[in-house]
């Protein structure tokens, strides 16, 4: 089952760090707006309280009557700003209009206004919110006591304007601080995740080594990293050690088993061949021939297992001439090819320097030629070819034949262990697997493609020296 990766750790950290910051920034802006409104309202209240007391002082009782000494200049000052005018109303008794603006609403009915104390409340005039200051004053004689009400109202536009100006002055620096904090958080997250990036890079470099799968992977080393990353690296190192021990045990078992089987199989083959020479009964010879064929196949399998174990061992590379090595191996197989009615030859460059292990490359080419001789069929032409392949400066070592080939859908199975292209006797399905192991050991890769009109090309691409 394929697992889809979730959100990256970097995105999660940024989300959990920047999202609360955004929420706090918006909350701070709203709180600043509310504080600005409250401060504006407080300033309006102070102004209205002073205005209503000053206006009340301008109304002087004379006997049972009133003298309103309110100059025209003061009235002009109160009403000089149409957008933020201050209006007033004088009534006696309260609610009975005497002068000013008759539209000022009374205070809420459930409020008991104390004489001589300013009372503040909100109302609406011309469908606009206003703040009203109210002051009740007693006047007249003891027998004819009367009450005078003075109201002064101011539009709340000034409060909103003050709050808006304050908020505008705060938003810009708060925005800059938010951006700066976001940048610091982003840089901190990137810096904090660098040890994980280095750990990932070390694992990728270790996985890309040419000898991957043949020698234990090097341990992960982090000189400076948080404790959690060190713990992760230590866990990975313990896992690598466990895998390396398992590989070593498997290689030792394979090598020991193959060595233990070589001697009895060689004795079985020798004794069977002697029995074939000494026996003259057809039935006995037929049975002995089957025993000999089975013993030879077993010996060939043991040999291939030994070569497989050798290809997975840690060996040292050296400078070689790949073309000279290929010509030498082709000459060694020429006699067997002629005996089987096939034409084996070499084509390619005269010299091709490369870095490799001669014994392993020789074994790989032996397996390629043996595979071609086994499956190409009588009369086939087999060519060992060495040359350059661009781009990338690759050295190409392949064996071509004009035999029946392999269906295109099975080309990818050629290098699988114990896979065979036909039921023809002989072979154990390990030869090309060994070729692939040797190619990987040299930092290269295998090649398998069909030829036109028929045939097969199998080999290796190796880094040129």
Automatic annotation (TrEMBL):
Q: State where it is primarily located.
A: membrane
Location comes to: Membrane
Stated name of the protein: histidine kinase
Question: Domain of life of the organism in this record?
Answer: Bacteria
- Gene Ontology molecular-function annotations: kinase activity
Q: Which residues cross the membrane?
A: 170-189
Please verify whether the record's keywords include Cytoplasm.
no
The protein's annotated catalytic reaction(s) are: ATP + protein L-histidine = ADP + protein N-phospho-L-histidine
Q: Which UniProt keywords apply?
A: Kinase, Membrane, Phosphoprotein, Transferase, Transmembrane, Transmembrane helix
Q: What EC numbers are recorded for this enzyme?
A: 2.7.13.3
Q: What class of enzyme is it?
A: transferase
The organism's lineage is: Bacteria, Pseudomonadati, Pseudomonadota, Betaproteobacteria, Burkholderiales
Domain Histidine kinase intervals: 256-465
